[in-house]
Amino acid sequence: MGVNHGSPLLSLVVAAYNRADILELVFVSLLNQTLRDFEIVVADDGSGPEIAALIDRYRPEIARPIVHEWHEDNGFRKTIIVNRAVTKASADYLVFIDGDCILHRRFLERHHKRRRTGRVLAGRRVMLDGELTRRLGADDVSTRRIERPWFWLGNCGRNDCKHGFYMPLVFGPRNRRQRNYQILGSNFSVHKDAFFSINGYDERIVGRGLEDNNLCTRFVNSGAAVKSIAFEALQYHCFHQADAMPHSDDFIETFRGSAETRTPYGIVKD
Asked: Which of 3, 60, 80, 111 falls between 20 and 30 A from 33, CA-CA?
C-alpha cells in the first residue's frame, strides 16, 4: 500500500509482549478493517526480536508507517510503555488494544464513528479458550470466519460469549445513553488531548490488575463520560495464563476513593 500524507484518522496503540504468532493474527485482522486510514503504534513491553521482525514484515502491507516503541523487559510495565507510545502517536484520536486481541472488521470504524469530545468509549471482548486459540490460523482471520458466532460458541467463557455479537442497531442507542462504564485496557478509545489532560496511565502501577481502574476513575473525575461500545467494537481475546495481581493491600488502598484527575506519575513527571 502507498503511504498517506497528513494525519491519520486515528492511532491504534497496541500493547504487546512476545507471542508474535498471536500478534500476527491481530495484524491480519487489521488488514480487514473497513476504516483504512489508521496508524499502528506498538507499545512493546520488552519482547524479543520476533516482534520487531514481524513488524518489519508487515510494514509494506499497512498504508501508514508502523511505530515500534520498545523498552527492556523488567516485568509487566504496560503503563510506562503505553504512555511512551502515546507520545509518538500522530492522530488526534487514540484507540487502545492488547496484542492478543483479534479485531472484528468494523472495530476501528465503530470507535471512530462514536467518538465525541468529553467521551471515552469502552468495549469488551470474547474470551477464547485454549483449545480454539491453539488451532487458530491466519486463514480463520483473513476470511473472517472468526467473526461468525458458530466459530467460537462453545469455545469461550460463558459470560463473555455474548460480547461477540455485532448488533449496533439494537445496542447502539442503549450504549449512547449509558454514562458510567468501566474501561478495559484492551478495548477503549479517547481523544489524545483528553488522555494527556489526565497525564495518561499512573506509572507507579506495574503488574496487572489496577491500571485500568485508576485510569477510568481519573477520566470520570475529570468530567468525562465513559460510554459502552459493547456489541459494536468487537474483539476476540486469545487465551493465555493470567498472572496473579501483585499489588499489596496497602498499595491498592492508596488509590481507593481518589478524587484525583491528573496523576503526577504519568507521561509528564511533576
From this structure: 80
